[in-house]
Amino acid sequence: MKVLSRDEFEQAxxxxxxxANEAFARYFIGESFLNPLTDPKECPLFLANVTFExxxxxxWHIHHATDGGGQLLxxxxxxGWYQEEGKEAVSLVPGLVVTIPANVKHWHxxxxxxxxSHIAIEIPGTDGHTEWCEAVTDEAYxxxxxxx
Length: 148
Description:
Cupin domain-containing protein; 2 helices; mainly beta; Jelly Rolls; six-stranded antiparallel beta sheet
């Protein structure tokens, strides 16, 4: 369900919006928020609720690993987009789980007419790191918005 009102979205966003994602702001178009759900000092699996304002999306990026690694997205509120390089974009809605293998270039974010949240789960891997790439252009994003 698309949610444009922030107040309405806050009621649906059961894991909480958290704070402005200032550390990674340079890799996003629009404003995002981060609410860590686990403490890396206490748990080897890092989970965070990531919230995107309407139209916000992250840059293309790759979660590299020589063994294991990757990311899971558990969609929890609002509507968004996920796209792997060379593939059609996928519409994201609450309840959908996206499995992103290591070394796959992709991006994700909110639809223009909705706030969006997902829990991002970093899969442990050997030699894991994230490579941030180019921004998703307004033209490419706009074509998705025309589709729905």
